[in-house]
Amino acid sequence: MINRETIIDFFEDLKEGNDFNIDEKLLWSYFFLDENKNKLQDFTLKLEQLGYEFDSIFEAEKVNEEDDAEYYLQVTKIEHHTIDSLNDVNTMFYKLAEDNDINHYDGFDVGNIE
């Protein structure tokens, strides 16, 4: 689980890297993991109602070849985050995943708006 301390470290790394202006809006990506691709597609509709945009569903890399296939759902949103707002979003996504029987909320990434 991503805790507040992890987010603090993430923001400190962003500041040091100078690749992102964390005082502006950025492109945030969020990832959910489940073995049922159709369930992820249905879950996308709920996320879109919350203002998130569907990006892709793609197969997760297998650790062992005999492992069952798992899929990532990636949604994005252009927004500005602080440590607390990103922590709130993560908390919301963990609960949404649980409430919708999605195996795992797997975290976030950030990029510049292109």
Could you explain how this protein is built, in words?
There is one protein chain. With 114 residues, this protein is an alpha+beta fold. It has a domain at 33-61 and 70-114. The protein has helices at residues 4-17, 37-49, 83-99, and strands at 26-34, 53-59, 71-79, 104-111. Strands 2-3-1-4 form a 4-stranded antiparallel beta sheet, covered by helices on one side. Helix 1 (4-17) crosses helix 3.
Large-scale geometry = globular
Largest sheet: 4 strands, antiparallel
Question: Structural class of the secondary structure composition?
Answer: alpha+beta
Strand content: 25-35%
Number of helices: 3
- The end-to-end span amounts to 30 Å
Read across the widest sheet, the strand sequence of neighbours is: 2-3-1-4
Q: In which range does the helix fraction lie? A: 25-40%
Which residues sit in consecutive blocks of at least 5 with pLDDT less than 50? none
Beta strands, count: 4
What is the N-to-C order of secondary-structure elements (H for helix, E for strand)?
HEHEEHE
CA radius of gyration: 15 Å
Mean pLDDT: 94
Secondary-structure map:
Blueprint: H1 4-17, E1 26-34, H2 37-49, E2 53-59, E3 71-79, H3 83-99, E4 104-111
Antiparallel strand pairs: 1-3, 1-4, 2-3
Search tags:
single chain; 114 residues; globular; 39% helix; alpha+beta; 4 strands
Briefly say what this structure is.
The chain is α+β, with helices and mostly antiparallel strands.
